[in-house]
Amino acid sequence: MTDEPGLERPYTFAEPIPTERLVLRPMRLADADAVHAYQSREDVCRYLLFEPRDRARVAERVTEYVAHDRLERTGDYVQIAVERRSDGRLLGDVYFQLKSVPNRTGEIGWTFHPDHHGQGYASEAARAVLGLAFRRLGLHRVVAELDPRNDASIRLCRRLGLREEAHFVRDLWFRGEWADTGVYAILDEEFARAGEAAPADPD
């Protein structure tokens, strides 16, 4: 237990969030096969903090994702399924965590199946989650931490308006070697100026 206060307006992720081409919705147990299709790939996991997962491990993780649906206190997170509206296909997911409630800071991340890269889906989904963070949760700052070798994620950060704030050199023991960490961030006023309704660019 903690004495730290929660958000003034706690959020339970129960209702889908529609965008122009997508539906952002809570993860379901039935999504395990679709999630396994990308979490099992070496090219997808190359810059993530876990190795490719087998079907059983993915099912365990999806069960955990389903149980996490409330954002109120530091450490709370949601793993948001990103579904294409035209055919209901799950394309990937967006991770969002309350990194610090006192400092009104969140953290965002994303993982998409490579078959759906280059069509702007990650931009569209992440922009909607940033809108949730700033407009609904009233956060001040959202960060993304990534491997600086991950050029695709860096390009996505820049399209979303996130600035590079830090580059930590060899700070993380990662798959048998020291690796760097890049930190990108955007403030609420910066997001408002950029406009969350900006057109989605190819990812």
How are the SSEs ordered, and which strands pair?
Elements: E1 11-12, E2 17-18, E3 22-26, H1 32-39, H2 42-45, H3 55-67, E4 70-71, E5 77-84, E6 90-100, E7 105-112, H4 121-136, E8 141-146, H5 151-160, E9 163-174, E10 177-187, H6 188-194
Parallel strand pairs: 7-8
Antiparallel strand pairs: 1-4, 2-3, 3-5, 5-6, 6-7, 8-10, 9-10
Helix pairs in contact: 1-3
In a few lines, what is going on in this structure?
This protein is an alpha+beta fold. The chain has helices at 32-39, 42-45, 55-67, 121-136, 151-160, 188-194; strands at 11-12, 17-18, 22-26, 70-71, 77-84, 90-100, 105-112, 141-146, 163-174, 177-187.
If you had to describe this structure to a student in words, what would you say it looks like?
The longest helix is centred in the middle third of the chain and has 16 residues, at 121-136. This protein has a single domain (13-194), classed as Aminopeptidase (3-Layer(aba) Sandwich). 34% of the residues are buried. Strands 2-3-5-6-7-8-10-9 form an 8-stranded mixed sheet, with helices on both faces. It has a two-stranded antiparallel sheet with strand order 1-4. The model has no long low-confidence stretch (mean pLDDT 94). Helix content is 29%, strand content 33%. By secondary structure, the chain is of the alpha+beta class. It is globular. It has 6 helices and 10 strands. This is GNAT family N-acetyltransferase. Pfam families: Acetyltransf_3. Residues 22-190 form the N-acetyltransferase domain.
